[in-house]
């Protein structure tokens, strides 16, 4: 047990690192998205700024910062300002509970590779995501424009509805690993089963594959991504709840969205894809690094999947979206919970 | 020591937010301040080792019920509340009663036991999800099931009440969302 | 080392504030919020007692309170919507037909 | 291992029948109701006989055969159980009840065929069977009391069967209430037993009592109990002074009169006294009372019976007087004689009623003997059976009645409790009995039909029709029984063997085996001869009065004047009771209870309080401002008050 002071210091350091890493990750996932979608659509994507347009995110950032920050009239000011901050803060907070690797000892300080290790981490993350509705809702309502209002109503309804499927799809995993602590869940997935199949939850039983896909869909809806990006359906609602936002405030929403994507991706990795487990070999430093590498790799694949789907799939109609959420995903998730609990009970 | 500090921090936040709830004239602000109260209460729950409850408090109360409130406020586009002459009874009878209540409780708690027992933190993570689940699904199974039925009925009632006369579709799903969350 | 009585006093204060809110506010929705506030105060007391007596029953009770609160919110807000639809107002003082 | 003879079947089967018919009978067809109503009783009868067969082969130490099925009441030391108790006495009763009952059921098929509420009738009848068997088989006084009250209920229902007729309804009520008076005594006796012996169980009670000495010195506990029991018996078995309900009970359908008010229920009192013989034989005073009451009732009812013109009324009074005989027997400790007479009486009196019913049936409901006559030719079957019964009841050798009645008279004369007075009264009664029975006989069946000129039932003559087979067959069977039924009690004096007494001996102790000398025998023979002579005398007198010189009866009546009227009007007992008890009660409840207490006090308080509430609420309703927040204010105040009170209580 560390002393309070060292604990605080270490935590602050970890927070800083996490912020920097995360923000860069966010920035470059935007770059990645533009690139990949470009190639899918037979374009080049960003080219000019730096090699392969690698500096494009910085340019965007600069642009956002220097753009004129205008507040439209007749908005309800306090909330109009609070909304983007709220969503960004929540997005960043949820990351702080995500472990990206084993415990490491740096300079005699033994600490987990995450900002805090809570034994109901998953619950708290879910709670925070459930709060992230407010950002959207308030933004849409406060900016006092019908596009925004409609967008935000859609967004919040959609998030609230799909959150259920999301949570239920995770229950199966929780039943199997019997813990809410992300780290323990991951540890439970170490090693491999017959035929060198890794003991990741997704491979444990067919039900978990179903659960994984339910989670995938729900996650897309949670983060308002294609094919569920109705809140910002350009063709009907201009830009949905952040129609009235510009410059940094818009950027905050933007970052929040990508941060949420990363969070969702890492949760999927932790719960279904065995977290940082993977072949570990080589000298000590390599052994220390590899788990983190595997983790990052899996998250990357997930994000790539996001972008890929965005490039390929069309958008749902709103009633289809709700119907799908309530009439398809929800029952499947419940069925999965029942099936999994049955299997576990029979195994006991 | 740390607990005491945290308690006072969150306690003051809660009380402040609650007062703000009363002070604000626009319902949406009241709603937000209520959310703050709930969040700080969740923190206090954590202090008392009720971690599961804390999470649930955030998810259910802040994440579902209050979302409902915000929705309704948005849908009905409720504006500033107008000043109308209230009821004399509420003023003349209610306030003294409230003051009396608070006073009595405080007096009982302090004057009656001048040396409040400091509780050790042995029961730290008393309210772990597992423990709660044990209790909930074994000893309190019947009440649990009954509440689930209650929820179901509430959903139907909400749908019927909120849907415009004649139709039963319409503003169903937002009302349903938080209720379903329990199951 | 927080004495339980602190928690209880805090919950009492919150509850009292809730009552006051119910007494002074006029907006139906806000009244509802005051009720929720009272419920929360009660929950706090429950958890505090559970902590004091090292028994989980209090926490289970809080759970049930939350569930009931959810149901209540769903129905109550639906009622508010219905009222608004017919009376075109959210002011409680204008919704006073139920009398002799 | 004790053989398990399923006693419980005997009472339960009729109950099942009653339930089925009572609950579903309304929807059943006539045929189904008949089937259900009879099959179950028949089954219980058959089972009773089978039990009898087993009972005879039962090893001696297993008699009485007791079986507890479940505990009913357990209060401190006192416990009562649902249990059945089978010894020779209850065996006889069970056989009599089930057999006669079954016959009467069959008879009712024909008799009630055209009545409304057919299913109701059979359901009640089965119910009665259930309760009667419970009474007979009970293994403690409490269960017996259930049966006791149950038969009362059944008789109430059946007397008031034609409840649309006001007289029937009130007759039912009368029977119920008058019997209650007796039941009160019975209850008190039970309480005394519980208080002093802590149990009502026969198998505990009787041994405990047998230890006590005979209260010859002076009346004591047992005497009190005995007298109280006698009250109950008098109520149920229509003895003085509680006999008034039985004649009115004739309002019920005739099969009911036959089954309940002649054969079985009214004998319950006798059975109860015989059952409690342990108590009585230790309380001479009580026994004396029993004997006297029996004696007086016999004579009294017989005299009334002479002057009745309603055929069923005559039979009713004769029933009362025969019951008097039985009590006389019990009173002189000749229990087996009493039970013997009970049995034979069940045969011939049941038969008499059924035959009378058949006559009434033939005449489309005519009950007045003055409008009958000459029916011999029209309904021979009824006539012959009736004849057998009449001879039997008049105690003419060798009919059943002779043996039982003669045994009673002999015991009344000879036993240590008896005296020649009892015998004399008994003899007189025997004479009267045979007189009024033959009067009935002659009036009904001889001479020429008087229905037409009397103008009643103008189409009567052509319509006199013999009853259907289903009614005649039970008549026939009972007729045979009332001829030969007595032979199982053939006295030694006539060179026979007292099978009946010997069978019952284990229950009542062996006084039947009292060594009797030849002198005794000759004396007994003499007395028997005298009684038969008396019976024949009665026959002769009836023949003279109602066959040869038909003008004489009116002359005699005129000559006797007021005496005749008094007898004809049943000594004005009913009027006396009405004046003494009923009227004061009505007046008191009208003026004091109704006008004073109910209207004056109770209603007044109710109304006043209601009006007060109205005023108060009128004042309070202005709290209902419709303003939710004011309500909230009230709530808060209330909460504050409650909390304050609790804190205050906590502080104190």
Architecture overview:
The complex is a heterotetramer of chains A (348), B (183), C (100) and D (652). Chain A has one domain (67-347). In chain A, 68% of the residues lie in helices and 2% in strands. Chain A has helices at 4-40, 56-66, 77-95, 121-142, 146-177, 182-187, 201-204, 206-222, 234-237, 247-271, 284-312, 318-347; strands at residues 103-106, 109-112. A two-stranded antiparallel sheet of chain A has the order 1-2. In chain A, strand 1 and strand 2 form a beta hairpin. In chain A, helix 1 crosses helix 10 (247-271). The longest helix of chain A has 37 residues, at 4-40. The mean pLDDT of chain A is 82. Chain B contains seven helices and no strands. The two termini of chain B are 39 Å apart. Chain C has three helices and no strands. Chain C is elongated and about 50 Å long. The termini of chain C are far apart. Chain D is mainly α. Helices cover 71% and strands 3% of the residues of chain D. In chain D, helix 2 packs parallel to helix 4, helix 3 runs parallel beside helix 15 and helix 3 runs antiparallel to helix 20.
In short:
Chain C has 100 residues and is mainly alpha-helical. Chain C has helices spanning 4-24, 28-53, 57-87. Chain C has one domain (4-87): Orthogonal Bundle (Helix Hairpins), CATH 1.10.287.3510.
The number of domains of chain A: 1
Series of H and E elements of chain D: HHEEHHHHHHHHHHHHHHHHHHHHHHHH
Q: State the total count of DSSP E strands of chain D.
A: 2
- Give the strand content of chain D: under 5%
First-last Cα distance of chain D = 70 Å
Uncertain regions of chain A: pLDDT < 50 for 5+ in a row?
Answer: none
**What is the string of SSEs of chain A from the N terminus onward?**
HHHEEHHHHHHHHH
Strand segment count of chain A: 2
- Termini separation of chain A: 36 Å
Outline the biggest β-sheet of chain A.
2 strands, antiparallel
User: Rg of chain D from C-alpha positions?
Assistant: 29 Å
Q: Structural class of the helix and strand makeup of chain A?
A: mainly alpha
Number of helices of chain D: 26
Fraction of helical residues of chain D: over 70%
Strand arrangement across the biggest beta sheet of chain A: 1-2
Query: How would you classify the quaternary structure?
Result: heterotetramer
Helix/strand/pairing category of chain D: mainly alpha
Strand order of the main beta sheet of chain D, please?
A: 1-2
Poorly predicted runs of chain D: 453-461
Largest sheet of chain D: 2 strands, antiparallel
> Shape of chain A, please?
globular
């Amino acid at each position: 047990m560390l002393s309070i002071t060292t604990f605080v210091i270490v935590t602050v350091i970890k927070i800083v690192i996490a912020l920097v890493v995360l923000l860069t990750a966010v920035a470059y996932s935007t770059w990645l998205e533009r690139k990949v979608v470009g190639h899918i659509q037979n374009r080049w994507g960003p080219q000019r700024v730096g090699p392969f347009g690698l500096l494009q995110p910085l340019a965007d950032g600069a642009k956002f910062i220097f753009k004129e920050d205008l507040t439209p009239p007749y908005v309800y000011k306090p909330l109009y300002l609070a909304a983007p901050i709220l969503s960004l803060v929540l997005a960043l907070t949820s990351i702080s509970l995500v472990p990206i690797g084993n415990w490491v000892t740096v300079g005699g300080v033994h600490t987990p590779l995450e900002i805090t290790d809570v034994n109901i981490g998953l619950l708290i993350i879910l709670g925070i995501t459930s709060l992230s509705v407010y950002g959207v809702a308030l933004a849409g309502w406060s900016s006092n424009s019908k596009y925004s209002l409609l967008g935000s109503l859609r967004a919040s309804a959609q998030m609230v509805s799909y959150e259920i499927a999301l949570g239920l799809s995770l229950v199966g995993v929780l039943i199997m690993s019997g813990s809410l602590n992300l780290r323990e869940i991951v540890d439970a997935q170490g090693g491999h089963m017959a035929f060198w199949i890794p003991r990741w939850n997704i491979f444990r039983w067919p039900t978990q594959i179903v659960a994984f896909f339910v989670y995938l869909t729900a996650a897309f809806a949670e983060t308002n991504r294609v094919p569920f990006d109705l809140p910002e359906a350009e063709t009907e609602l201009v830009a949905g709840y952040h129609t009235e936002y510009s410059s940094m405030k818009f950027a905050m929403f933007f970052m929040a969205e990508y941060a949420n994507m990363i969070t969702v991706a890492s949760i999927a990795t932790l719960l279904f894809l065995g977290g940082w487990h993977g072949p570990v070999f080589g000298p000590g430093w390599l052994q220390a690094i590899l788990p983190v590498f595997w983790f990052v790799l899996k998250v990357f694949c997930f994000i790539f999947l996001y972008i890929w789907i965005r490039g390929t799939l069309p958008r749902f109609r709103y009633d289809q979206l709700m119907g799908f959420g309530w009439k398809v995903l929800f029952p499947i998730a419940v069925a999965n919970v029942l099936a999994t609990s049955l299997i576990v009970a029979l195994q006991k | 020591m740390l607990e005491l500090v945290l308690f006072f921090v969150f306690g003051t936040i809660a009380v402040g937010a609650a007062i703000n709830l009363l002070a604000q004239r626009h319902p949406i602000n009241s709603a937000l301040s209520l959310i703050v109260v709930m969040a700080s209460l969740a923190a206090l729950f954590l202090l008392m080792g009720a971690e599961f409850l804390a999470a649930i408090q955030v998810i259910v109360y802040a994440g579902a019920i209050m979302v409902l409130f915000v929705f309704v406020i948005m849908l009905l586009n409720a504006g500033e509340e107008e000043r109308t002459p209230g009821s004399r009874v509420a003023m003349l009878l209610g306030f003294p009663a409230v003051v009396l209540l608070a006073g009595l409780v405080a007096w009982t708690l302090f004057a009656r036991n001048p040396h409040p027992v400091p509780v050790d933190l042995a029961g730290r993570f008393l309210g772990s999800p597992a423990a709660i689940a044990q209790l909930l699904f074994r000893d309190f199974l019947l009440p649990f099931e009954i509440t689930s039925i209650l929820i179901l009925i509430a959903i139907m009632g909400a749908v019927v009440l909120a849907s415009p006369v004649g139709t039963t579709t319409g503003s169903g799903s937002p009302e349903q969302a938080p209720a379903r969350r329990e199951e | 080392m927080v004495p339980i009585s602190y928690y209880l006093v805090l919950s009492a204060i919150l509850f009292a504030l809730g009552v006051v809110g119910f007494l002074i506010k006029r907006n139906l929705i806000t009244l509802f919020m005051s009720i929720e506030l009272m419920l929360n105060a009660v929950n706090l007391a429950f958890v505090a007692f559970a902590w004091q007596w090292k028994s989980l029953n209090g926490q289970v009770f809080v759970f049930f309170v939350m569930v009931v609160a959810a149901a209540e919110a769903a129905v109550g807000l639906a009622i508010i919507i219905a009222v608004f639809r017919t009376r075109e107002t959210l002011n409680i003082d204008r919704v006073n037909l139920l009398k002799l | 291992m004790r053989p398990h003879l399923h006693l419980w079947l005997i009472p339960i089967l009729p109950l099942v029948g009653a339930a089925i018919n009572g609950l579903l009978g309304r929807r059943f067809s006539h045929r189904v109701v008949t089937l259900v109503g009879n099959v179950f009783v028949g089954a219980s009868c058959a089972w009773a006989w089978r039990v009898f067969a087993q009972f005879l082969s039962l090893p001696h130490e297993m008699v009485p055969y007791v079986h507890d099925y479940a505990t009913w009441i357990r209060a401190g030391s006192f416990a009562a159980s649902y249990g059945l108790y089978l010894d020779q006495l209850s065996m006889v009763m069970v056989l009599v009840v089930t057999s006669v009952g079954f016959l009467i059921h069959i008879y009712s098929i024909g008799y009630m065929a055209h009545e409304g509420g057919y299913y109701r009738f059979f359901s009640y009848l089965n119910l009665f069977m259930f309760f009667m068997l419970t009474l007979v088989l009970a293994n403690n006084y409490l269960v017996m009391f259930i049966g006791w009250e149950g038969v009362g209920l059944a008789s109430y229902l059946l007397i008031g069967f034609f409840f649309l007729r006001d007289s029937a309804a009130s007759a039912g009520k009368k029977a119920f209430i008058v019997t209650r008076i007796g039941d009160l005594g019975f209850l008190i006796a039970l309480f005394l037993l519980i208080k002093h012996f802590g149990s009502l169980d026969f198998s505990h009670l009787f041994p405990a009592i047998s230890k006590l000495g005979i209260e010859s010195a002076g009346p004591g506990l047992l005497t009190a109990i005995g007298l109280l029991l006698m009250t109950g018996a008098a109520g149920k078995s229509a003895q003085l002074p509680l006999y008034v309900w039985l004649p009115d009970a004739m309002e019920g359908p005739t099969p009911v009169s036959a089954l309940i008010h002649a054969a079985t229920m009214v004998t319950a009192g006798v059975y109860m006294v015989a059952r409690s013989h342990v108590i009585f034989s230790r309380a001479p005073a009580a026994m004396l009372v029993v004997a006297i009451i029996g004696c007086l009732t016999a004579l009294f009812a017989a005299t009334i019976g002479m002057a009745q013109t309603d055929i069923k009324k005559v039979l009713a009074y004769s029933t009362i007087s025969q019951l008097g005989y039985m009590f006389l027997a019990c009173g002189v400790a000749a229990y087996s004689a009493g039970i013997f007479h009970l049995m034979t009486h069940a045969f011939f009196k049941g038969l008499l009623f059924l035959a009378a019913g058949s006559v009434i049936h033939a005449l489309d409901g005519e009950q007045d003997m003055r409008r009958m006559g000459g029916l011999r030719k029209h309904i021979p079957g009824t006539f012959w059976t009736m004849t057998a019964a009449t001879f039997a009841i008049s105690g003419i050798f060798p009919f059943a009645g002779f043996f039982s009645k003669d045994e009673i008279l002999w015991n009344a004369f000879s036993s240590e409790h008896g005296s020649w007075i009892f015998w004399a009264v008994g003899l007189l009664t025997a004479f009267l009995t045979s007189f009024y029975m033959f009067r009935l006989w002659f009036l009904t069946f001889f001479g020429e039909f008087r229905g037409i000129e009397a103008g009643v039932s103008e189409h009567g003559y052509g319509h006199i029709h013999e009853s259907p087979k289903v009614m005649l067959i039970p008549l026939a069977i009972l007729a045979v029984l009332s001829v030969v039924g007595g032979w199982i009690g053939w006295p030694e004096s006539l060179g026979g063997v007292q099978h009946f007494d010997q069978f019952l001996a284990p229950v009542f102790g062996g006084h039947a085996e009292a060594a009797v000398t030849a002198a005794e025998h000759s004396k007994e023979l003499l007395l028997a001869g005298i009684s038969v002579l008396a019976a024949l005398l009665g026959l002769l007198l009836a023949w003279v009065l109602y066959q040869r010189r038909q003008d004489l009866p009116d002359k005699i009546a005129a000559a006797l004047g007021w005496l005749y009227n008094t007898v004809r009007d049943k000594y004005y007992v009913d009027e006396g009771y009405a004046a003494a008890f009923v009227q004061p009660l009505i007046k008191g409840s009208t003026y004091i209870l109704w006008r004073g207490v109910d209207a004056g006090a109770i209603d007044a308080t109710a109304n006043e309080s209601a009006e007060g509430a109205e005023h108060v609420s009128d004042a309070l309703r202005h709290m209902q401002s419709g303003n939710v927040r004011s309500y909230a204010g009230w709530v808060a105040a209330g909460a504050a008050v409650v909390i304050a009170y609790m804190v205050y209580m906590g502080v104190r």
